[in-house]
Amino acid sequence: MGLAPAAHGGNRTGRIFTGDESGNFLFRALFAAGFSNRPESIRAGDGLRLSGALVTAACRCAPPGNHPTPREFDNCRGYLVREIALLPETAVIVALGGLAFAACLRALAENGRTLPRPRPRFAHGARYRIGKQILIGCYHPSQQNTFTGKLTQKMLRQVLRRARKEALSVTS
């Protein structure tokens, strides 16, 4: 789960994390971890298929200044709450970035999940069991993070492979 579609990426192409460098970085890792049939996403309808994964966002529209306001989070929370309600109760959720992580916690709580005490804190690779679901934090694949090396392909692939392993272990 990401933050929001980028104005020149997902907003333009019709698929979140598509058409910008963040998406290119993410889809290469999704492919390497076995969640995608190809390492790139060009636009909606391009033949890309995800398997065992859903890519979504806390906010539904590209926010001004690329940073959603609390009101925008509030306006979009209902969509995220409904999406999480549709997930299997044993789903593994990877939150890309601290803001997406916080939005996910709120949506899980609104779906009746009891949050652990102390409240989960975002950190790259942090794992929390919330009910039967697992929430894993991951740095966002923004250029700010990938160009500086804060998030590398290896780091993202490790998180995604861990999510896949966790999901397979709860379904077997």
The first-level CATH class name: Alpha Beta
The gross shape turns out to be: globular
Number of strands: 3
Helicity, in percent? Answer: 40-55%
CATH superfamily annotation:
Uracil-DNA glycosylase-like domain
Largest sheet: 3 strands, mixed
Average residue-wise pLDDT: 90
Neighbour order of strands in the largest sheet: 1-3-2
How would you characterize the overall build of this protein?
Helix 2 (21-32) packs across helix 6. The two termini are 24 Å apart. Strand 2 and strand 3 form a beta hairpin. It is built from 6 helices and 3 strands. Helix content is 41%, strand content 9%. It is globular and about 40 Å long. The chain has 172 residues and is mainly α. The longest helix has 19 residues, at 153-171. It has helices spanning 10-13, 21-32, 70-86, 98-110, 143-147, 153-171, and strands at residues 92-96, 127-130, 133-138. The protein has a 3-stranded mixed sheet with strand order 1-3-2, sandwiched between helices. The model has no long low-confidence stretch (mean pLDDT 90). The protein has one domain: Uracil-DNA Glycosylase, subunit E (3-Layer(aba) Sandwich), CATH 3.40.470.10.
Which key terms come to mind for this protein?
globular, 41% helix, single chain, 9% strand, mainly alpha, 3-stranded mixed sheet
Task: Indicate the topology.
Elements: H1 10-13, H2 21-32, H3 70-86, E1 92-96, H4 98-110, E2 127-130, E3 133-138, H5 143-147, H6 153-171
Parallel strand pairs: 1-3
Antiparallel strand pairs: 2-3
Helix pairs in contact: 2-6, 3-4
